[in-house]
Specification:
By secondary structure, the protein is an alpha/beta fold. The chain has a single domain (2-233), classed as Spore Coat Polysaccharide Biosynthesis Protein SpsA, Chain A, CATH 3.90.550. Helix content is 43%, strand content 14%. The protein is built from ten helices and nine strands. It has helices at residues 12-25, 46-52, 65-75, 94-103, 121-137, 148-153, 165-178, 197-202, 210-220, 227-233, and strands spanning 2-5, 36-39, 56-59, 80-83, 107-111, 114-116, 144-147, 183-185, 192-194. A four-stranded mixed β-sheet has the order 4-7-5-8, sandwiched between helices. Helix 1 (12-25) links the parallel strand 1 and strand 2.
Amino acid sequence: MVVPAYNEAELLPRLLGTLKTAINRYAGGASRVELIVADNASTDATAALAQAQGCRVTRVEKRMIAAARNGGARVARGEVLCFVDADMQVHAETFNVIDRAMTRGNAVAGATGVTSERWSPGIAVTWAAMVPMVWLSGMDTGVVFCLRADFEGIGGYREDRFFAEDVVFLLNLKKLGRKSGRRLVRPRGAKAIASARKFNKHGDWHMLFAFPRIAWKQLIAPSKPNREAQAYWYQDR
């Protein structure tokens, strides 16, 4: 399990607590799961907290979420790679559900899906607006997983993307999977809990207005950083 983290001393312990519960519930044996925190040049106690909790910590100096995910994957030893954001919480059955999904042999990659840690009219409407995209694309978020061989086959996460690197990642895996008759999967029974901190900071309705504008700028110039995206994803902690 790779956890990219930048200045996550506040929320990382919460995630690690849920991960340890899921590891202890894993039918394949707790020793088969490794926890890697990819410390993305944090200036707080993120690395020290992770080490104190028994995680492997690798330092990634390039301040980009894709680089942090790739850096964690490079030091991972497992055949199946999993990725989860540091502000999430995972379901206790996470590793059992992922194991079953991957052993069927028809999955190139997948994601567990998420629910929100709190709800409001604004968050519910935002969630509802995203659901059709999930259904149509087959792509989801939460704990994302794939085989190491397939991760390497597409070159990992694109480091020319300041955001939406996870969307491009799954799109590339989806294309790869078509060659061997495999597909993206969304296994049930292990939804992660997504943090509401963006809503807490920017307001419960903000994503309906700000996010399309940021996404449009990224669509026009995907490799060019824009200040709004930088502020939203990289400068809030």
